[in-house]
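# step 3/5: fold
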Amino acid sequence: MGSGSALPTKNNFHASQVFELRGRRYMIDCGEGAQIKLNQYKVNLSRLDNIFISHLHSDHCIGLMGLISTLAMLGRKTDLNIYAYKDLKEIISPMLKYFSDDDSFNVVFHDINPNQKAVIYEDKGLKVSTIPLKHRVPTCGFLFEEQQGERHLIKSMIEAFDIPIKDLKAIKQGADSVDKEGFIVPNERLTTPADPIRKYAYISDTLYTEKIINQIAEADILFHESTFVDDDRQRAKETLHTTALQAAQIARKANVKQLILGHFSARYRDKKPFLKEAKSIFENTILAEDGLQLEF
């Protein structure tokens, strides 16, 4: 929804993304103009129930009130869950009283501690954890991990051993088959391994830190902020941000499959230098842009 940083531009709105898994949608940050982009890219809001806010700088959360107001006008009935540092509730609650006079749905705030690694959300398909970062205010990234699926039945073997239907669920979950006479068929003969879980790591505003590497290791896709190019490394350090080169170093050390650079400072009209310096270290790198869609 947005690939820019503090100062939005015509081509790079404030930070916001939508992650989708099995028809359910999860928003990551909600900067100014996010709802405009949601409409422009035809993102169905009916299945958007959870929003994760990395930190309380305006370019990551100022669009929340507008989005909530729009959802009310659209007749939303189900709860909207917002996961963020505790102060967000104090900021948003007074505005809800003034700018959203429709109480047809509840806005439920879930306090998170950005300084701790913790699972903050879990359902049958997905687990979301916080990734502590180093910025001027309490900030974290998020790791989206698909829940481990069941093993796959080998139909010919199930039929050959005449396995009853009532036993199939347990077998898919890893159990052996045991018949009335006590004959055991090992699970490995009846199934093949479950599909590998998919991981998406979102690293928001942060000073370069290698403490995140173990947590994001082997991610399918890593989004890492790269507000500056490396010629401005000192400016990045002063403002507690990361350069494109540093983001690539993290990607290489974490052995991720793909790196997306984003959160570009408005001072750069040409984004090619970001890509060039990152690719010098980590080849499988692309640039974020508003409207970009990727499939795992």
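# step 4/5: annotate
Residues 16-149+195-287 form a domain with the Metallo-beta-lactamase; Chain A fold (CATH 3.60.15.10).
# step 5/5: archive (pending)
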